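Before the break, one more example. Copy the sequence into your notebook; we will annotate it together after we see the structure.
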Amino acid sequence: MSDVFVSVSLSISIPIKAPSVLGEDPSSIEAHVNVLNSQYQKMQPDFRIVRDRMQQTFAWRQKEIADGMTVEDTVKKYPFLRTPTGLCDELERIHPATGNLCQRFNEGFKCIVPKVLQLAQRKCPLFQFYLETKEEALTEDLPDIDFRAALIFLPYIFKENIDRFITLGETDLDSPYPTIQLTDRDWKMAFARRAPNILKVDHIELFRNSGIDEGIISAFCTYFVFNLAYPRHLKNTLMFLQRYIAKIVVDGDQPLPITVTRQINLLY
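Here is what the structure looks like once it is written out:
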């Protein structure tokens, strides 16, 4: 899409008022942003101040992103969007009815974990790595391993795969969409308690996580926070997470294809 510039010659001088959004203007936004950046530099930020200033700048930030502000520029200006908590908080501002997203995500997904694992057994080429991880794990770690495995296997239920979503090693995928790079080159580590990974969006490193579940939930948030369309190769999985797990309703959402709803019916 190209920008169109129109030049207009006026014979009189008209004072231009700086735009405002919900009582904020460029000057007040700059002041809020300075506070946020100052807090981000601290070892222990005051999250009461952070949430207040993120709320004050929210409508302005939404307009900036809608007007085409890049991911790189957005996270430079609002650095707390480079944190898992910051992303979840922002999604909750966008869709307040979601409530506590992480809690809803965990509770909503836990109930389908057994079915996902059952259905993925014959579809997922990574299933053997999961079984080997369980054999070597402590009993108290098994529920968390099952949860992570189900998150990783979910796309296979919808006849999608994770090749362009999760990768082994710090190899940059040629994709502007959210991607998770496991820093370890062993898939078994993805199911284990600690699986260091990097979340990237539009080739920009947002942050590093210690668990694949946190990485996947954060990646889901970025689609809403940065106003990104779902990629074709993961669309059905993301629509399921949006509607059935996070229970987020977006204007203009189309009915899911019958082939997708059939798979969803197998999960419940």
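The beta strands are 166-168, 179-182, 197-201, 204-209. Confidence is low (pLDDT under 50) at residues 1-17. Try to locate both features in your own notes.
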